[in-house]
Specification:
Keywords: Membrane, Transmembrane, Transmembrane helix. The chain is mainly alpha-helical. It has helices at 3-8, 19-40, 56-65, 74-94, 98-115, 122-132, 134-140, 142-166, 191-199, 209-229. It folds into two domains: 19-166; 178-229, no CATH class.
Length: 233
């Protein structure tokens, strides 16, 4: 990479997202947080008060802005927070140095999320939160941690299922339906085609047009190489 390419790599990549979709995503995210906090107030308290965990706000961005993202699906959301909470609790209890505990907690959380196929970035914030506020949470005990994580993730997922499926053009969770294979021997997509397709998706796609074109080109090359190596397939 030369100097010019390095400088250009810092440019802002803007996706063709309509203003109405941006406003709608912001509004429903705010409503979801409000409803989450409102619901938690009425949950039964078993010797400890439940509260919102700050990392759930980051999950809200995924659930209501990019609900099609693999990291926003139910298992990554639930498992990501659950395993990260476990990592944060264990490291906070067993490592005295808070800085070392923080690094270990985030690292362990990522390993667990990868191992159990539930990678969810806000989960790492849950692990860090439990380490940074270990002194406070230690008095509440593991039962509070379990209750808080279950309450926050459970209600957030219920709201995602309800709100996203009530909005026109949205579906949650992501649905995988088999599609016929596109014959590309005499068809070549252009960047304009990718840009137009992005405008037809109701939500934010967290990749750039350049990324999609690169993926498309790599997929075509792989398909052609496979066909060349296995002419009968």
């Amino acid at each position: 990479m030369n100097f010019k390419e390095f400088i250009l790599s810092f440019r802002v990549h803007t996706a063709p997202i309509p203003l109405t979709e941006r406003i709608r995503s912001a509004v429903i995210s705010g409503i979801a947080i409000f409803l989450l906090g409102f619901a938690i107030q009425f949950l039964p308290e078993f010797n400890f008060p439940l509260a919102m965990i700050s990392s759930i706000a980051a999950s809200t961005v995924l659930l209501f802005v990019v609900p099609h993202s693999p990291m926003a699906q139910p298992w990554p959301v639930f498992g990501g927070h659950a395993f990260s909470a476990l990592a944060g609790w264990l490291c906070g209890q067993s490592i005295q140095d808070p800085v070392l505990a923080a690094g270990c907690a985030v690292g362990l959380a990522i390993i667990l999320m990868h191992s159990f196929h539930c990678l969810h970035p806000p989960g790492a914030a849950t692990a860090l939160m439990l380490v940074l506020f270990n002194t406070h949470f230690n008095s509440l005990g593991w039962a509070w941690v379990t209750g808080a994580v279950l309450a926050n993730t459970g209600i957030a997922l219920l709201l995602a299922l309800l709100i996203n499926n009530l909005l026109p053009g949205r579906h949650y969770p992501m649905r995988h339906t088999p599609e016929p294979i596109l014959k590309t021997d005499h068809l070549q997509l252009k960047r304009e085609d990718i840009e137009w397709a992005l405008t037809q998706i109701d939500g934010v796609v967290d990749v750039t047009e350049e990324d999609l074109m690169d993926i498309y080109e790599l997929a075509i090359r792989h398909a052609k190489s496979q066909k060349k190596n296995n002419p009968k397939s």
